[in-house]
Amino acid sequence: MRIALVCPASLPATQFGGIVFLAVDLAREISNMGHDVTIYTTDLDFSNGQNKFNKKLPRTEKIGKFKINRTHVWFSLKLFFINSSMFKQIEKDKPDIIHTIGLRSYQSIVAWRASKKLRIPLIVSDQGGLTTHPFLTQSSIVLRILYKIQNYFIKKIINDSTAISAANEYEKEIFLDINQKSNIKIIRNGVNLETLVSKQNFREKYQIDSKFILFVGRFSKSKGIETLIQSFNIIKNEKEIVDTKLVIMGVDFGFEKEMELLIKKFNLLNKIVVIKNPPREDVISAYGESEFLVLPSQWELSPLVPLESFAFKKPVISTRSHGIPFTVKDGETGILVEPENPNELSKAIIKLLLDDKLREQLGISGYNFVHDECNCVSMAKNSLRLYEQVLENNDNNREQIYSSMTNDINKLKLSLKHFL
Q: Which strand (E) or helix (H) includes residue 62?
């Protein structure tokens, strides 16, 4: 089977987030099963900062048994990257099936157009862009217009898709609100457990001489970093945790300056360690040495960061916002609080820091969760099964159409024969 995975970013831009890891993990696992897999993407490269595109990256690169096909982005607005030559690459390669990941992207539009022209099945997945961003009303008029244009295409893509792969029940309901007739299969997001192994001493590298709790994610208002800093300010003088620090790791998505001002305002420079543009191996080692992860997001559909934390038997404190409860189960794999509530969050942090038994219990449950359900091997097998079902149905439909056309032609011949 020739499979095209289409997404807005791929290696080496790991800081872009979950879409990169999902596509790469799918490509690696499915290509290892003997299929021809290519990731069609942009030349995004975070090495020199956000939204930097690197023409020096190989246009085609083979990694293991799969390929990455990059085309250059000649214009971008926020996370909307235009690389129009991608269409020709997909058209030339003629895949059997297209799977687009990340609906609020130009690349999903290209995938949709290619599937229609080539008359091949289109599988759709999202990773956080399906619902409108909660801070849209605070955006410029240009961005609001862009979102409306995107919404038009998202509906078209969903309506024309052959099948939809939804990460959880919450996401499935959002898809159904757009089109009740959509063919939706729930396939849990998964992480690569083989790569989630710490290979260095994180504390030694960053000179951290105490216990620490961890935040990993974009420096964005929607990630709840403001609430996290406020909550840490509330508990900074508690005797039981006076030697505990907060480590914030990520890439700036518009909130870095405000975050740094908040840390200075609350006099937390000696309590909070900020690590910008961290290498992937440093993030992995931070999971392993942390006490637990805190993700106080105001908006998530199916986050991968908690799953990575679970792989190290580390529990997660997060919020009850949107799709998070389908990843972090309150009282089972972590603790959930209301978003934008620093008092409730600070109490949860203290509770988990002081209760070793609870941390261990929640951590083991999370570990079992990713090993049983949310790992990349299970995700790839379930996705491949969906591809096979779609292609089989597509072949059956073609046979039915061909058979129907043949019957019509035979009837026409008989009618002409009688007429003549």
A: strand 60-63
Q: How high is the pLDDT of residue 29?
A: 97
Q: How many CB atoms lie within 10 A of CB 173?
A: 12
Tell me which amino acid residue 26 is.
Answer: L
Q: What type of residue sits at position 180?
A: Q
Q: Exposed e or buried b for every residue in 347-383, given b needs 16+ CB within 10 A? A: bbbbebbeeeeebeebbebbbebbeeebbbebbbeeb
How many C-beta neighbours within 10 Å does residue 201 have?
10
For the stretch 264-269, contacts whose Cβ atoms lie closer than 8 Å and that sit 24 or more positions apart, written own/partner, are 266/229, 266/230, 266/232, 266/233, 266/236, 268/229, 268/232, 268/233, 268/236
Q: Which helix (H) or strand (E) holds 42?
A: strand 36-42
Look up the pTM and report it.
0.86
**C-alpha distances in Å from residue 132, one per residue of 65, 107, 150, 225, 398:** 36, 18, 10, 20, 37
Among the listed residues 210, 271, 225, 235, the one whose alpha carbon sits nearest the alpha carbon of residue 351: 235
Cα→Cα distances 185→84, 97, 104, 205, Å: 30, 16, 20, 43
Q: Rounded to whole angstroms, how far apart are CA atoms 224 and 61?
A: 37
Tens digit of each residue's pLDDT (9 = 90 or more) over 134-147: 555 566 787 778 88
How far apart are the C-alpha atoms of 153 and 323, rounded to whole Å? 23
Which residues, in sequence order, are CB contacts of 12 under 8 Å at separation 6+?
45, 46, 47, 57
Virtual torsion, Cα 336, 234, 343, 311, nearest 10 deg: 0
Residue 419 has a CB neighbour count (10 Å cut-off) of 6
Q: Count of CB atoms within 10 A of residue 144's CB?
A: 13
Report helix angle 342-354 to 225-235, nearest 10.
60
The Cα 418–Cα 264 span in angstroms is: 93
Distance CA 396, CA 400 (A): 6
Q: Do the Cβ atoms of 39 and 29 come closer than 8 Å? A: no
Q: Which residues of the chain have pLDDT under 70?
A: 47-51, 129-139, 395-420
196: tokens are 């989630």
Q: What pLDDT digit, counting tens, does each position of 179-237 carry?
A: 999 999 999 999 999 989 888 899 999 999 999 999 999 999 899 999 999 999 999 88
